[in-house]
Amino acid sequence: MSRLSGKVAIITGAAQGMGAAHAKLFVEQGAKVILTDLNEEKGHAFATELGENAIFVKQNVTSEEDWATVIATAEEKFGPVNVLVNNAGITMAKNMLDMTLEEYRRIVDINQVSVFLGMKAVAASMMKAGSGSIVNISSMNGLVAGAVGYTDTKFAVRGMTKAAAINLAPMGIRVNSVHPGVIATPMVVQEDTKAAVEEFSKHIPLKRVAQPEEVSNMVLFLASDESSYSTGSEFIIDGGLTAQ
């Protein structure tokens, strides 16, 4: 039996990279999926590729109005939402002393505020469904230091996950965070960073970067009923980096 049969899932930032990998696996496992992103061209094309059980909705994840539209569309097309994967996020490789307040707040809005908005917006739909699973994509930099802005927000996602898990548990809604390490997404393996990533991989205990599908398998587990007693927890996929 398909592991997500009968589930309706929203995945943000799903036009490419890890979000696309999650969406593909979810559809394969029987879910009906709403993909959201700002990239309309890639989003629509990918939803078409996935078939009738996937639709694309353009979304600014920092907008309450857009969240309301996404959830209304999901309910109209497929029914109440069972799963939310807060995947959308950005990073910026700047020293704190060189970063402007505007740049910092943009990272906070996209990486942190959007997660709050998504969890708050989807709760009522999940209550209609009778239960729900929220999977917040943090990072290994939600556990150890990295770039200013990115690290701050990924720590915040980890904390929000725990607080929200307590708030939403009485409603039958589980909330967990996933903490990927170095993943072979287009942003990471582009030509100008490829050599640096290959060099860094030598310091990973497993001696390689992860494929997006390896993160998707963890997200699938948390979205499914197989993880029915897991909430408020962090799940690390970093090849052993934070264990050192």
UniProtKB/TrEMBL annotation:
Enzyme class: oxidoreductase
EC number: 1.1.1.53
Ketoreductase domain mapped to chain residues: 7-186
A GO MF label: androstan-3-alpha,17-beta-diol dehydrogenase (NAD+) activity
Keywords: NAD, Oxidoreductase
InterPro entries from the UniProt entry: KR_dom, NAD(P)-bd_dom_sf, SDR_fam
A GO biological-process term: bile acid metabolic process
Similarity comment: Belongs to the short-chain dehydrogenases/reductases (SDR) family.
Protein name: 3-alpha-(Or 20-beta)-hydroxysteroid dehydrogenase
Gene: fabG3
